[in-house]
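Model it.
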Amino acid sequence: MLNLIDNLVILAAFIGIVAVAIHFAKSSQDMDDYYRAGRALPWSLVVGTLMASFYGGNGVIGTVGYSTTMGLAGFFIWSIGCHASRFPLALWIAPRVSVRARGTMPELLRRHYGKFTAILGAVVLVITCMSISEVGATGYAGEAAWGLPAVVVSIVVVLISIGITCLGGLMGVAVTDMIFFVLMLCGVCVAFPGMYNAVGGMAGMKETMSQAPELFTATGGLPALKAVVLILLCINLYKDPAFYQRFAAANSPKTGKRAMLTCFSIFMSFDVITIISGLIVRTLDFNLTIQPELHYVQLVLQYLPTGVRGFYIVGILGAIISTIDTYYLVGGEIISNDIIFMLRGDKALPGKTSILITRLSCVAFGAIGLAVAFQFDFIYEITLLLGSMSMSILFVPLMMAILYEGKKTNVAGTAAAVVGAVVWLWFRFNPVSMEGLGAVDPVLIALPASFFAFVIGNFFGRDYSAERRSAIDAAVKSGKDPVTVATTDFERQMITYEVYEAKQPKGEFKVEWFGVDGALILLYVALACIYGYGMLNCVEWIVAYMAPLVASGMAVGIFIKYCTEILSFATGKKSLHGDQKK
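Modeled.
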């Protein structure tokens, strides 16, 4: 469906993006720069990289495919529930992560629960970082655009993702994320009104699919237990290593918080478009004789002019690339700086060796993803499977490590992770069902079992964090540097984190209910009410025009803000950290 001009646009765009990655490779040889972008990401860039990482092929193409069977329940249960449940992540966890999780998530587990739990958590996180669902989404986009076998396009995109990750580190990933984010979102938004009006809007879809009225209700089209699982998986982001990496890379705790709050309104506006697009696909092919994800990309290309089609493909493939390179970087870091570090007896690798192992890990992730991605009927099946598994094992110990200020013993964390894993595996291979409700996802049993294991385990073992704080207090009282009480390199690093945490200004963690924070929350609530009313009552202008205008308008505004910041950096008016130069 693409012509010569479209393909030239795609080629030129990707050459430019690779050039960006090469540029940042020159300044990403230091480990902190490579993995954390020097902890200097400004608000606009954090918004862009969070958005692009969250809405890859799974968030765009996968949501469309799943919405053909969920209907409007995808918005009212998945979208609203998803983002509303994550407000605590933005308001209270993101600022704390930027100082409490100065390293990786396995390091946070090690800090509180010891080496065994940290290694188990690291292995689970590496599996989820392979981005298998994104590799599958790539194939559908490529097949629709060029008619090539899905695996061929996937190989090319995986190679580009590996290249961007290996060259530029987090700063290169974040900047290319921003570019991909704007191209993808604007391309989808431009095509949407034409697709929507072609099927007669909400009223036309309801009439055409009168035999499935449940698809147009707030809760219909989704089995009860599946809805519960989706709501649970909404909070799966609380243990997503890529988001934690972004928060740790922000130039201040407040930056990460406000970036995430801004994302919620963009996320929800874009969800309206992808979920309604699923209904459009179902309207045109009620029996789903064509793979819905493939059908969707073909539809979008029909409603875009020459040249713009090329930018859309760059955007949609770029969204996938931005997600893949994000998780490849995180997974590679976990292998080199956590798993290998602990297996070597806490002996840190030299910086260049660590980066090399991360790059080799990216190649391995790509090979595994290509081998597994096309073994599932729907992209979302991969997401649900891996999300259910990882949440069962890691959610309880991680949330307790970040949020709970009381006693946390090593036995509690280990018991929570092990019991969660065992229970999930048992019910995965020995499924149970409830009459009238369907199959019970293992996470519904494993999650409470993990929590109870934590509570019981907390009566036993050692509280490493409390012991560390006592040692720090004793050192301070005796006039010593707290770091001198440590007996290993790992303990020195952990004590450094504890001291850094204690010195942070309290204002950085304060929620400004009557300021910017409150305004961003009100914007989300207002948009949720307006969009929900528009879909249920067939107010066509809200769905067809308001949602894409809000999503694309916010995206372009943030991109312009980022460009002005880059100009300030280039002219020397600001430093990379955003401070005015003297």
